[in-house]
Amino acid sequence: MALRWLWMLVPRTGGWNPRSKKSGQEEERHVRGNDRDYNETFSYADNRIKTAKYNIFTFLPINLFEQFQRFANAYFLVLLILQLIPEISSLSWFTTIVPLVMVLAITAFRHKSDQQVNSRKSQVLIRGKLQSEKWMNVRVGDIIKLENNQFVAADLLLLSSSEPYGLCYIETAELDGETNLKVRQALTITSDLGDDVAKLADFNGEVTSEPPNNKLDKFTGTLYWKDNKYPLDNEKMLLRGCVLRNTDWCFGLVIFAGLQTKLMQNCGRTKFKRTSIDKLMNTLVLWIFGFLICMGIILAIGNTIWEQNVGSSFWAYLQWKELTLSAIFSGFLTFWSYIIILNTVVPISLYVSVEVLRLGHSYFINWDRRMYYSRKDTPAEARTTTLNEELGQVEFIFSDKTGTLTQNIMVFNKCSINGKTYGDVYDEFGHKVDITEKTPCVDFSFNPLMDRKFRFHDSSLVEAIKLDESLVQEFFRLLALCHTVMPEERNEGELVYQAQSPDEGALVTAARNFGFVFRSRTPETITLYEMGLAVTYQLLAILDFNNVRKRMSVIVRNPKGQLKLYSKGADTILFERLDPSNEELMFTTSEHLNEFAGEGLRTLALAYKDLDEDVFDEWMKKLLFASTALENREERLGDLYEEIEQGMMLLGATAIEDKLQEGVPETIACLTLANIKIWVLTGDKLETAMNIGYSCNMLRDDMNEVFIISGHTMLEVQQELRAAKERIMGPSREKITADPDTEKTDFSDSSVFEETIISEYALIINGHSLAHALEAELEQILVGVACLCKTVICCRVTPLQKAQVVELIKRHRRAVTLAIGDGANDVSMIKTAHIGVGISGQEGMQAVLASDYSFAQFRLLQRLLLVHGRWSYHRMCNFLCYFFYKNFAFTLVHFWYGFLCGFSAQTVYDQWFITLFNIVYTSLPVLAMGLFDQDVNEQYSLRYPSLYRPGQLNQLFNKRKFFTCTLQGVFTSFIIFFFPYGAFMTAVRDDGAVIADQQSFAVTIATSLVIVVSVQIGLDTNYWTAVNHFFIWGSLAVYFAILFALHSDGIFTIFPNQFPFIGTARNSLNQASVWLVIFLTTVVCIMPMVAVRFIKTDLYPTQTDKVRLLQQASRRQRPQEPNFRRVRRTSSRRSAYAFAHQQGYGELITSGKNMKMRSPSTSTYPLSSPAHNPNDAINDSRRRSQQHQELTVEDLEAR
């Protein structure tokens, strides 16, 4: 208190500040309600967010900084400056600046903003009135009113709500991926404020809390109000990104806003992303620049020697300035002149073309109809133009679970009642048939309270209910009574269930449709409508769930006065507590559970017990005593629950399908065949994540072992990781790593050993264990073990941990990473990965705003990578190889010519040919190849995922490929120059005149060059279209048309100084000897490459060569679509709703605190989070499951 009063005495304009020891570093936050002047003295962040790279003010400087990280752009900027010096420049300055500006403009073409999020509206209490304000105008200390289904605008301290006792319900899917409702409760002192605007406007409490941080599950603070102080924790906070559910309204005080909210603290910083080809190009440009300097030095030295020995004899006839009469200075000027002339080894047109190609590839993604999701009218969108070829090199995919792999929809699929299964459909011959959308559904019209969205296909279950089969009715009665669901009846008969877990909602909805409708509840009663009749049960006790019990029970009294205990939970737990008379039924039900689990369904066992009145009364006395005990309360309650849950009678089992998005298992199988490792990073509980792993076929029972890392200390985590590594690699190899000093060297060895691992392993690690594993001491062994496993699942991870895992792989594996998610909790890893993909169409759009690519369904990732990504990489690599070859062949002719022209920096070509060669004569054919070329078509690209491998290995364009292309270009330039030179030494025209003038020589070389590079691009083109034909042959035609036009008499008459090659083309190209020289030059340039490619394809064919031959052989037949059938899992592993449940909900219901009643609030019940017990997560029994196997080319050829 003394500190608080002292702080109030300090002048606001400056002075001592208790929240900071260092200037600008916040150590403690002070917020006063309804006092903006006070809060603004701390300069807290406003509520505006920024996830895009630029805004209108920072676009130009930041974008130019990003662009000039490319050495080539800086290189051309230097050339532009050199061309402004007339003594050394032979080219105009605008020939460089115009293409450079085009490159920068095209690259910066796309820009996204956060205006949509910042412009959302909230009701803010300002000057005693509620006013509608944009989110970006909200300030720390403001009081905000939220209404049902609204997003929380900032991190708020809950003050009051429409629910009793200041309770409210929130959904945190944007934070941790979970859609089950969570409860928050206001302080009793503030909940009395209600919705009285006058009282809220007078609220002047001051909150002292921790500074902004990224811990989503922790908050520490104190409220000072009315001379009292009240402790604050995370259960009283509503974090930005949450959604208010099942609560009409609530009021909250803004504690953290904008970029200081916990959500945005987990988002990470926006990083400039460049492809590996961009980085390689930077290196190559430096090498080429060094090569250019070497050529310039050689030619400058040659000029100096020539001027000294020969040129000095002509100085008297040249009107040079006295300064230039020096051989050394002449060599110096010649050096810069040749730097400008030879700069076309890296022409600016290359970068213009690269950006055009990337823009075109982006539009191909946007225009792909097969990536359009019609149900939500959502097309795929390439939100960047710079990463397309990187899509063809991905090695690691990091995926969120909720909303990315799953629809987060639980569906009641099958059940087993008294030894009989329901849910399958059979034909007239008794054969089971597959259920499709066309399969007729059960008619529930007999039930006016049915959920019209519910679908079930086995009509025999409805018939059993209508026949009054007692056990069937008891089965659904149990589902309608044993739960913690809250009903909401918006209109008459329009029921909405608010479930803590989606599993519970699915079970209660199933009971509703089969005639046992859960209608309402109070703390003491539950009202059902059983086959249209209202029946009220007295609720006597809820035996709540926890992760040790793995079950939930209720005790009720029916209208007949009978006491019933209904229980549901994991079958392995319930079977141990059954009456011995259930042994045969238990065996039959166990077989059914195996079948259900084998299909990837989440299973649950149901049991009941008739209770004796006297026994129950005695038990209740013990329960009341244990519930008020001050010590060991949980243990005593657990023992009492265990006591009464003995000797139960088995009813059956349920099977729920956690609906995956369409095509997820097939997509994962296909991407796995492409040697892409898929890691799941989720905020969900371990069991939920594992269930999805099995459903996706990422986890299978035929795996050698599934390792679960759940240690709570660094030592425990290290021991578990070492044990896993020993099991994978064998004790002999683990001895090498016994010494911690050798761990680093062993990791690199393990990455090589990884290729020899035949067995399949999976690694599952908890968030608290991951925090230790990410420490510097353990990260090496974590990467080593994880990369040896087929599947990696990280559960209960924070958004920041997701980014740390991605960064870990980027740093240690140097592999291209892709992160995909749909919520704000995925923004951090999306920004960190080389490529970020956002799933659009969900409630939150922050993942899409921060992403590089977006679409509506996970299955479209397969097409994005295996088709668009692979094609983009293939096209870009072929384009670069050809471009370097072409320009070395074009430019080095000047180098050879320098030895014959006195090193005078004279150009061998006509000035106009130099200008038009890269812009007109050869630009369109290479663009056509870069835009449309395909080594194999899309069907074969999807059918043979192994074709993706060359991109991961960076085989199509690397330093070795670059040297090969440049050597081919050097060879071509040598032949193009010296073949005509040797021929023209003795050649004469038809009339006997000498043909060896400089202009005729230039025309012959230029024509040979254009023809050679045109034939070469024809050989490099794998997929011919009308556009390719038009551009290649059209460019040749345009060359000759422009050549004869520029050498015509007419244009010389108009511009005599600009077009000196009058009549040269006409006089040279009408000679048979010239055409013979051109033909021989072309043959000698092309044939060696043709021979090399033929021998290589015939003797050492690649997988692409084989598939291309197969495609050509089957061209007349329509290629089959890739057929990755969904693989049904065969597993004896059980799963249950309880693992997505939260402990403490039963106590909340029986206390009546979540009921809408007028009883006064007297106390606050804390809600505890369940503890994890992963040791029971995996059963020992395993069965072989069908695996996806890629067909080889040889198999199909044999067919």
Automatic annotation (TrEMBL):
Provenance organism:
Danionella cerebrum
Q: Which reaction does it catalyse?
A: ATP + H2O + phospholipidSide 1 = ADP + phosphate + phospholipidSide 2
For activity, the cofactor(s) needed are:
Mg(2+)
One Pfam family this sequence matches: PhoLip_ATPase_N
Active-site residues annotated for this sequence? D400 (4-aspartylphosphate intermediate)
PROSITE patterns annotated for this entry? ATPASE_E1_E2 (PS00154)
Looking up Gene3D superfamilies in the UniProt record yields: Calcium-transporting ATPase, cytoplasmic domain N (3.40.1110.10), Calcium-transporting ATPase, cytoplasmic transduction domain A (2.70.150.10), HAD superfamily/HAD-like (3.40.50.1000)
For bias type Low complexity, the affected ranges are 1159-1170
Q: What is its EC number?
A: 7.6.2.1
Domain (P-type ATPase C-terminal): residue spans on this chain = 848-1102
Identify the taxonomic lineage of the organism of origin: Eukaryota, Metazoa, Chordata, Craniata, Vertebrata
Keyword Cell inner membrane assigned to the entry: answer is: no
Q: What is this protein called?
A: Phospholipid-transporting ATPase
